[in-house]
Amino acid sequence: MSASGGTKAIVAALAANLAIAASKFVAFAFSGSSSMLAEGVHSLADSGNQALLLVGGKKAQREATPQHPFGYGRERYIYAFLVSIVLFSVGGMFAIYEGYEKIKHPHEIEHWYWPVGVLIFAIVAESFSFRTAIKESNPLRGDLSWKEFVRRAKAPELPVVLLEDLGALVGLILALGGVGIALATGDGVWDGIGTVCIGVLLVLIALVLAAETKSLLLGESAGPEETRKIEAALVDGTTVPRLIHMRTLHLGPEELLVAAKIAVRHDNTAAEIATAIDAAESRIRAAVPIARVIYLEPDVYSATDAAKGPDPEASPGGPAHPPADDH
Prior knowledge:
Layout lengths: L2 H29 L2 H26 L15 H30 L8 H29 L4 H7 L4 H29 L3 H30 L5 H11 L7 E11 L2 E10 L5 H18 L3 E10 L2 H5 L20
């Protein structure tokens, strides 16, 4: 993901949410609408979330240290995970609680033109923010569906902003519906129902974000396209006749670790093997520029061993050897 593209979408969302939050709190003060209060807290939480994403992006740029030799790229994943927690607790749970209280103790909405006017303004502002996020995402999305883009994206910022903006737009429509029905019927319970629906929506979005960012935090491999490019770059048919096995891991959105065991000819000298490894690393970096950390282990290929299938003990998390019997 382009860092500049993600930052542009975040800044647009932050500006929109700050303006919307202020207008919603003013509307709540004049009308007493619980939907307005829930939506105001939602927009305020979203503003904090965008600030968290900006902080995470800044911290991720720090240079590697002896204590953190692979750098700080995963800071972006950590702050994106915090966003899901904030959205769940501050946005979703508060809205559900506020809606429940309004259903128990309904009261008529006053000065109806305040909430209606603010909701229309908020829909326009959120649409602008959502449009910016879509525009910045399209070049990176390619032929993927939006669902696949959110699931496969290694950079968390644009998927987070997209889901937040989508949730905000749907929430605004729910709030407008709750306020509209409450005004039409004179029953403030509908305002509370709309508020609860907003809370449930935010909780669901927060759970999706938490699941996706958790996967990134645990460590995801390169995508299928990058994997194919790396495999093709590794094997040149002469100095590296075959790839035995390979593991990849995202150290951050724009930094990939590649660890592979490659076949070399049994009569190669140490100098020839070292030259082959250097050339293979150069080909990988040319094919996939984000492959910045590369470890290649040479081995003599055995057709007999290959026919046995992959060794589970050669993979992380494989079965451990049983303890030796000293008796």
